[in-house]
């Protein structure tokens, strides 16, 4: 694998995913690290929403990245790269469930008219930050208790912030299915905590620091 200078890596923020992919395919393969660091949290959240296990989610992330790298020339740009990558991770996570004989079809859905409250954008003080961290843990537990289909859609749509169309494309379903699964998730969460913890959704299932570095290092080692 070609070595790319730290200076080039530091300037990755000015490049789109598609530009990075083009450079990787032209020989700057070390830039694959840019894509991993950019999308690690999204891919972790998708895998964990299916598996509900942090260690297995990391394993799936690594394999999904290796799969994506191996088939990078198949990315045709019709969907966003992030959506294409998420779909690979979802397929890998579901395959893992099937291998351990715990896979069941995604749950049926029922409609709901509940809308999640908008997050509070005011600068938080230290007490508020501590409270948000605590609520983030409560939110993670509540999301884990959702049926799988509702859990995955809620995580991608509200925790990760993907659009309805992006979620539908990543999961290979139509937007109506996404909306009904999302409605079911909102209704289930409303009873317990969503009215009080809506601001914490964005802090759930973070994937930063050493954990991010660990996955990047493992994948780069494998694809070298």
Layout of strands and helices, then pairs:
Elements: H1 6-10, H2 17-25, H3 32-51, H4 54-70, H5 81-99, H6 126-144, H7 148-159, H8 164-171, H9 175-192, H10 194-197, H11 209-223
Q: How much β-strand is present in the residues?
A: under 5%
The parts where pLDDT drops under 50 for at least 5 residues are 108-120
**How big is the Rg?**
18 Å
Measured distance between first and last alpha carbons: 5 Å
- Give the total of domains: 2
- Total strand count, please? 0
Give the biggest sheet: none
Helix content range of the residues, please? Answer: 55-70%
Mean of the pLDDT scores?
81
Identify the notable features of this structure and list them briefly.
0% strand, Arc Repressor Mutant, subunit A, 11 helices, 224 residues, Rna Polymerase Sigma Factor, Chain: A, 65% helix, mainly alpha
């Amino acid at each position: 694998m070609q070595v790319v200078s730290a200076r080039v890596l530091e300037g990755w923020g000015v490049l789109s995913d598609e530009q990075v992919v083009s450079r990787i395919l032209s020989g700057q393969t070390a830039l694959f690290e840019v894509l991993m660091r950019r999308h690690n949290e999204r891919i972790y959240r998708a895998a964990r929403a299916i598996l509900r296990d942090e260690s297995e989610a990391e394993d799936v992330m690594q394999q999904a990245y290796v799969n994506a790298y191996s088939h990078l020339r198949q990315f045709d740009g019709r969907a966003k790269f992030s959506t294409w990558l998420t779909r690979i991770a979802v397929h890998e996570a579901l395959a893992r469930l099937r291998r351990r004989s715990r896979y069941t079809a995604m749950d049926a859905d029922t409609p709901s008219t509940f809308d999640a409250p908008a997050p509070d954008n005011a600068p938080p003080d230290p007490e508020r930050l501590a409270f948000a961290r605590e609520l983030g843990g409560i939110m993670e537990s509540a999301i884990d208790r959702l049926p799988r289909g509702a859990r995955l859609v809620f995580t991608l749509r509200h925790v990760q912030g993907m659009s309805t169309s992006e979620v539908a494309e990543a999961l290979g379903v139509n937007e109506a299915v996404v909306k009904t699964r999302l409605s079911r998730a909102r209704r289930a969460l409303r009873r317990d905590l969503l009215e009080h913890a809506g601001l914490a959704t964005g802090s759930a299932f973070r994937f930063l620091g050493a954990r991010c570095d660990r996955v990047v290092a493992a994948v780069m080692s494998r694809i070298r």
